[in-house]
Design brief:
The structure holds two protein chains of two kinds. Chain A is mainly β. In chain A, the strands form two sheets. In chain A, strands 2, 4, 5, 6, 9, 10 and 11 form a seven-stranded mixed beta sheet that branches. Chain A has a four-stranded antiparallel beta sheet with strand order 1-3-8-7, with no helix packed on it. In chain A, strand 4 and strand 5 form a beta hairpin. The model of chain A has no long low-confidence stretch (mean pLDDT 93). The radius of gyration of chain B is 13 Å and the shape is globular. In chain B, 0% of the residues lie in helices and 59% in strands. By secondary structure, chain B is mainly β. Chain B contains no helices and eleven strands. The chains are: A mainly beta, B mainly beta. The interface between A and B is medium-sized, with 27 and 26 residues.
Chain lengths: 115, 111
């Protein structure tokens, strides 16, 4: 299984809502990533988990809260978002080499709209 | 600040022609990768070149890396309409997970 799945595919939420994005992989990858991508822009790294521990937080606002319950799952909890947070949220996973990171496998993304 | 810069921003060619995209970066890297993204979808990994490699091939793809100039190029030969997509380079810093994507090149291949 070489697939990264993400749910939901689309999400519309109000600024007072709480929602969660989910990501799953069964490739045995020990690094998992969240990216945010605005239209016609490149993906921007938000968080990286390595061996289920938060390795990188790219100064993301606290209204985004990541969670890695186990080596296959990655969640992104959303609360009190702003309209400018509307974007495509991409999850990815990769193997971890001794001193370097291998290619990342991406999910199809969740298209989030904040009203 | 953004690590990878790509040019051209957009490229329109006829089917059968070759397409070349360039990427520049600013800091030391462990490896450089190229990804393809069809409109509004997830990214697909194309090829990875490590910092100690100079050239790599995969099917119709050829990637070069010049660490002295901090630049890379992706050549797609004999392009097809199905190659229409956005192409991004991505660099991973030495010893870390931080991956930074370039601005991307939007390729349009006319049938």
């Amino acid at each position: 299984d070489t697939e990264v799945t993400q749910t939901p595919k689309h999400l519309v939420m109000g600024m007072t809502n709480k929602k969660s994005l989910k990501c799953e992989q069964h490739m045995g990858h020990r690094a998992m990533y969240w990216y945010k991508q605005k239209a016609k822009k490149p993906p921007e790294l938000m968080f990286v988990y390595s061996y289920e521990k938060l390795s990188i937080n790219e100064s993301v606002p606290s209204r985004f809260s990541p969670e890695c319950p186990n080596s296959s799952l990655l969640n992104l909890h959303l609360h009190a978002l702003q309209p400018e947070d509307s974007a495509l949220y991409l999850c990815a996973s990769s193997q971890v080499g001794e001193t370097w990171v291998k290619e990342q496998f991406f999910g199809p993304g969740t298209r989030l709209t904040v009203l | 600040s953004q690590q990878g810069e790509e040019d051209p921003q957009a490229l329109s060619i006829q089917e059968g022609e070759n397409a070349t995209m360039n990427c520049s970066y600013k800091t030391s890297i462990n490896n450089l990768q190229w990804y393809r993204q069809n409109s509004g979808r997830g990214l697909v990994h194309l090829i990875l070149i490590r910092s100690n490699e100079r050239e790599k091939h995969s099917g119709r793809l050829r990637v070069t890396l010049d660490t002295s100039k901090k630049s890379s190029s992706l050549l797609i030969t004999a392009s097809r309409a199905a190659d229409t997509a956005s192409y991004f380079c991505a660099t991973t810093s030495t010893g870390g997970f931080k991956t930074i994507f370039g601005a991307g090149t939007r390729l349009f291949v006319k049938a």
